[in-house]
């Protein structure tokens, strides 16, 4: 018994993959046009394993010095491209102080800014020792913002106390 997939001379099939030349939408063979028109031909025994209209499988990867067989197994180790630099030792402290300086403990913000500047200078002086960006930069910026907010708060408090003092002085002169 012959199937449409292993008979190279049979160009018609009940699945619509044949090349009978009929291009009407209602006929089962070639229901969307012939194989030559659509670019998808029926699988013939003489065609390659992927069909006439399909590309070849990708070439095998080149031999790798990182695996014993020459080819990396799936999920295997990746090649070593460079060292992963650690963060500055005070990076976490600077970040925590910067966050505390923004959230509510404003007195921590100037310390985060000062320590962040010092750590940034150490990182710049020793390139390749520590990660250049990260927690130090974020903590430093949060320290700057927190210090500015602290300064604004101090100025507002001073103005408030002056206003209260003037109001109390004005009330005592009218009695």
- Strand content is under 5%
Distance between the termini: 121 Å
The major β-sheet equals: none
From the spread of the alpha carbons, the general shape counts as elongated
Number of strands: 0
Question: What number is the mean pLDDT?
Answer: 74
Radius of gyration: 38 Å
Percentage of residues in helical conformation: 40-55%
Helix count, per DSSP?
4
Oligomerization state: single chain
Overall SS class: mainly alpha
Poorly predicted tracts of residues = 20-24
Write up this protein:
With 175 residues, the chain is an all-alpha fold. Helix 2 runs antiparallel to helix 3, helix 2 packs parallel to helix 4 and helix 3 packs antiparallel against helix 4. The termini are far apart.
List keywords for this structure.
mainly alpha
What is the secondary structure topology, with strand pairs?
Blueprint: H1 35-38, H2 91-103, H3 108-125, H4 135-173
Helix pairs in contact: 2-3, 2-4, 3-4
Short description:
The chain is mostly helical.
């Amino acid at each position: 018994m012959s199937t449409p997939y292993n008979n190279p001379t049979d160009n018609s099939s009940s699945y619509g993959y044949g090349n009978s030349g009929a291009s009407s939408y209602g006929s089962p063979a070639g229901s969307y046009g012939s194989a030559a028109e659509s670019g998808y031909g029926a699988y013939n025994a003489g065609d390659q394993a992927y069909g006439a209209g399909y590309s070849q499988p990708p070439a095998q990867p080149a031999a790798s010095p990182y695996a014993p067989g020459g080819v990396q197994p799936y999920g295997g180790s990746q090649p070593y491209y460079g060292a992963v630099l650690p963060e500055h030792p005070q990076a976490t402290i600077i970040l925590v102080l910067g966050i505390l300086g923004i959230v509510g403990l404003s007195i921590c913000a100037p310390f985060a800014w000062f320590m962040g500047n010092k750590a940034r200078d150490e990182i710049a002086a020793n390139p390749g020792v520590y990660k250049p960006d990260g927690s130090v930069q974020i903590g430093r910026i949060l320290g700057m913002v927190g210090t500015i907010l602290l300064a604004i708060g101090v100025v507002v408090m001073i103005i408030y106390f002056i206003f209260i003092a003037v109001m109390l002085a004005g009330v005592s002169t009218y009695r």
